[in-house]
Design goal:
By secondary structure, the chain is an alpha+beta fold. It has 2 domains: 176 residues, no CATH class; 194 residues, Nucleotidyltransferase, domain 5, CATH 3.30.420. Helix content is 49%, strand content 21%. The strands form 3 sheets. A 7-stranded antiparallel beta sheet has the order 2-6-7-1-5-4-3. Strand 11, helix 8 and strand 12 form a beta-alpha-beta unit. It binds zinc ion.
Amino acid sequence: MKLTVQVKLCPDETAAAALRDTLHACNRAANHASRRAFATGITSKTGLQRLVYGELKGMGLSAQPAIHVARKTAGAYAALRENLRVGNYGPEGCRRRRAVEGRPVRFRKDAAQPFDDRSLSWQLDAGTVSIWTVHGRTPGIAFQCSPAQLELVTGYRRGESDLVLRGGNWYLYATCDIPDPGVNNPKNGFLGVDLGIVNIATTSDGTVHAGKQLNQVRHRNRRLRKKLQAKGTKSAKRRLRHLAGREARFAADTNHCVSKQIVTEAQRTCRGIALEDLGGIRGRVRLRKPQRVTLHTWSFAQLGAFVAYKAVRAGVVVVHVDPRNTSRGCSACGHIDKNNRPDQATFRCMSCGFAEHADVNAARNIAARGAAGWAVSHAVDDAA
Ligand SMILES: [Zn+2]
């Protein structure tokens, strides 16, 4: 499985200036490549590389960065096509979509740039990297990371790393390819996990991960956002961006903690994890408006993704089950009735009288579906 490890760079002033000039040059080149792609309609990796390689070298890039700029541009067009296809810019012919289709893809001057082993080398013992810049090779840039991250980078780093400027700090996002530890047989069944808004995650064991703090942050930010949006000044826009970043980081931290606890519990008890299949949420594709739904859908998808990758590393099976009626069905007798839910928090079965916390009942249904699905698919395996 592939993981991205973020390593913070600590360049001195000269090195930082060289990195900045390099990003600017690469993105100037990317914008040039993008205009060429737009004008000619050539957006495939090899086609675009052939078209602009010489031109990019003429703009001061060396061979590898020129290739990566061409590929990055081709990748941006592929992402754009996918976004158009799934309707993220609205239906065909609408104004927003026409605007996007009618101009070349643009890159920010500080947009991330990939570096491969020929233009970036790691001195792990010394804790430094040496990187190609437009001012020549810049060696001895110190980096910082946790011991766990260093272990990943040392053992499993493969291929490219992205140079990223974020909030005034420099990072390398290193791709690490970790061997699959193999999957443990879920001999004690499945831990069901219900994802929600009031409670971020509730397990079939009855553990409730409340989202109170996260929701407070969201509500506070929503009020603040309205005010700032009404203002519309440049500084208000900057504050809005800052706010969005902070909220996303807070949500990600929460999702990391919750997913870790869920995976640890499943591993400890030799169970798999069953999640609802939220369907069709693609990793790199922007989600549709409205904002409120986007926020939550995005956060669900992230928690699901965190659970999935932590589970793979821990050898825990994850299954995705059909989400229909998980909250309205009785986990004791199977009776489905919307009157089983007298209010948001309570489940009381109209047929057998079984009563339970509503989210715990849903999680138990999810666990049961996970176990049933696993049994069926493995019976088929055995027969084959
Ligand atoms: Zn019942």
